[in-house]
Amino acid sequence: MFVASLYFAPALPAYTDLETKSLTLDCTSPSSYLKYCLSEEKCRKYDFLKSITDNHTVTCKVALYGNQENIKAIFESWDVVPPLSFTASTNLFHSDKEGLCTYFQINNVTIGDKQITDPTCPTLTHANTTVNCDDVSFMSYIDAPPMPYEELLTHYQFWMYLFCIIVAWCGLAVTVVMSDTVCFQLLGAAANKYGQQRLFGSLGWGTLVVIAGALIDYASEGDAQKDYTPAFVLTFSILFIDLFVATRLQIEGNEKQSGTAGAIARLICEPRIVLFVICCVVVGISTGILWTFQDSNEGPVEQESTPKCTDPQRWFCVSVH
Fold this sequence. Notes:
- The chain contains ten helices and ten strands.
- It is α+β, with helices and mostly antiparallel strands.
- Strands 5-6-2-1-9-3-10-4-7-8 form a ten-stranded mixed β-sheet.
């Protein structure tokens, strides 16, 4: 039940002070662009852009760094002088994708009291940038780091989620032990068929995982974020079926058996018992590693080569429609 209760847990508030993420400013004619490139194709990466059906405005701070000659040439083409404080707008609905790169056209730039429509440069000029936007979905699209750990701990939603997870996993541990015990009780003299029971249990679990994943993808088609409603509905349905079946199980009375140290030692010395224990340990450790680190394969964020956000000389704002 606590696993299912995660569906009703309140979401974290939108975090508007996301860390910066590097993009490239391509200033050219007849238009200038903010360019974001992937190192490799990622499944469903472009769902966020596909979900946009109309103008979508995002306000970003942008810092230029790198080749100073290129930066100077861009400012001269726009007829402005640093330090900068301006707003630029682009239309995400009309963003262009070429290979692994996505281009966001800058429609206008406002610098102080001056507004520049369709800012351009006579020749193609590149400048490295970092951006800091107030739209969580857009920052997630460009792979910005998530909410800082210290900030996360200040929200009650996190602690509610953690509590539900802890109780759910405690319940899962008890359920696994009890289900194995009940399985042996039902098998009786045919306890050697326990492996077959586990096999069919694993087949059922694996099949439901595939079905749940397919339903989630279907429900999330065209959305920027995953919709896990089908998985929770499936969980509730299977839970009630389990409760119905459990009330119909006929389990004979308890049998108390006393084990000795010698009997346990003899079991440990049997190769098949040792192999079973090793498999349980290896699979358990592997599962923990996968579930913990599956979303941490992007590597550390390089920050030494990007400018500090407090540098007043190179900051401006971008509004993305």
